[in-house]
Write a structure and sequence with these properties.
With 328 residues, this protein is mainly α. The chain folds into two domains: 79 residues, no CATH class; 225 residues, Hypothetical protein af1432. The chain contains 14 helices and five strands. The strands form two sheets. It has a three-stranded antiparallel β-sheet, with no helix packed on it. Strands 2-5 form a two-stranded antiparallel sheet. The longest helix has 21 residues. The radius of gyration is 20 Å and the shape is globular. InterPro entries: HD/PDEase_dom (IPR003607), HD_GYP_dom (IPR037522). This is HD-GYP domain-containing protein. It comes from Syntrophotalea acetylenica (Pelobacter acetylenicus).
């Protein structure tokens, strides 16, 4: 790759400087490096791979992926610039009818997941806003293309990382809302997307040893986990990133019709449809994810459990629409 820029290619920067990682897949949507890009060598040093505005070498990127290097790195000071350029390019890709749906889905999903990871790792306003920026083209792609939506659902990866869970739930919930509400403009899909993707942001304030505990939680631990609902709302409110949709989804997605949910113990019709959509996506993702306390279920087994035990009795219409996401 070109060595034009402020530092020669191969120059090393001390590992303790602030860097954040980006998925190599994201770079498929840009021709030139949005900012200086680095790889990390075996000793933990960050080595300049491509200088800002240099032409990206596709073959070199493919070689990195071939050798299992799926992440590159950007200096923290460049995060805003990287996010702005990436968002503009993603918007162009989503609107371009000549780009295959599978390519759109792969790039959009990787970009959104990376931004979600940064927001969960450091839930300050700039990083949450960057996540919101990446949520918009993801929502647009789901709204515009059923084929791309199917690819997005196939691309969901299941592990116990909260940001992965939240990204998956966001994709499932936006897709379900799109099916259930159609194109009714009374429902702002961008605001809904922000609420769905960030519904569990409060878990970044829950001790990791409780979130990843392999066995049953104690009652005290359960109460700590339950606090993530109001903590998530508090984070969004503190950073001035709150909408009516996000408030409703964040605060109500664990409410149950029998009144045994939390945090308010709401019942029946008092639970908003937006929260119900998020709950269905949340339950499915939890059942199909690999967790410290259970093995992941197949799609068939997860949907069977949901039908027999969880949601089909009270949310029949929503569940019927949810099943359509896995048809064909």
């Amino acid at each position: 790759m070109s060595d034009a820029g402020k530092a020669p290619e191969g120059a090393e920067i001390a590992a303790e400087e602030s860097f954040f990682s980006v998925n190599v897949d994201i770079l498929d949507c840009v021709d030139k490096a949005p900012c200086d890009l680095y790889r990390r060598n075996a000793s933990g040093q960050y080595v300049l791979l491509a200088s800002r505005s240099s032409t990206l070498d596709r073959d070199a990127l493919k070689r990195l992926q071939f050798f299992g290097i799926g992440q590159l790195f950007v200096q923290g000071q460049d995060s805003g610039c990287f996010s702005r350029i990436l968002r503009t390019r993603l918007d162009e890709i989503v609107k371009n009818p000549h780009i295959e749906a599978s390519v759109k889905a792969r790039v959009v999903q990787a970009s959104c997941r990376d931004a979600m990871r940064r927001a969960f790792d450091d839930p300050r306003g700039p990083f949450i806003r960057q996540a919101c920026d990446m949520i918009v083209p993801t929502v647009d792609l789901i709204v515009q293309s059923d084929q791309a939506t199917r690819y997005l659902i196939q691309l969901t990866s299941f592990d116990h990382a909260t940001y992965v869970h939240s990204t998956n739930v966001g994709i499932f919930a936006v897709a379900l809302a799109r099916l259930f509400f159609g194109l009714d403009r009374a429902h702002d899909m961008h605001n809904l997307g922000m609420g769905f993707f960030l519904h569990d942001l409060g878990k970044c304030r829950i001790p990791i040893e409780i979130l990843n505990k392999p066995g049953p939680l104690t009652e005290q631990e359960r109460q700590v986990v339950n606090c993530h609902v109001e903590e998530g709302f508090r984070i969004l409110e503190e950073n001035g990133i709150i909408t009516d949709e996000a408030r409703t989804i964040t605060l109500e997605h664990h409410e149950k019709d029998n009144g045994k949910g939390y945090p308010r113990g709401k019942m029946g019709a008092d639970i908003h449809p937006y929260a119900r959509i998020c709950r269905i996506a949340d339950i499915y993702e939890a059942l199909t994810a690999e967790r410290p306390y259970h093995r992941r279920r197949s799609t068939f087994d997860a949907l069977r459990i949901m039908k027999e035990q969880e949601v089909a009795d009270v949310d029949k219409a929503l569940f019927a629409h949810f099943l359509q996401l896995f048809a064909g």
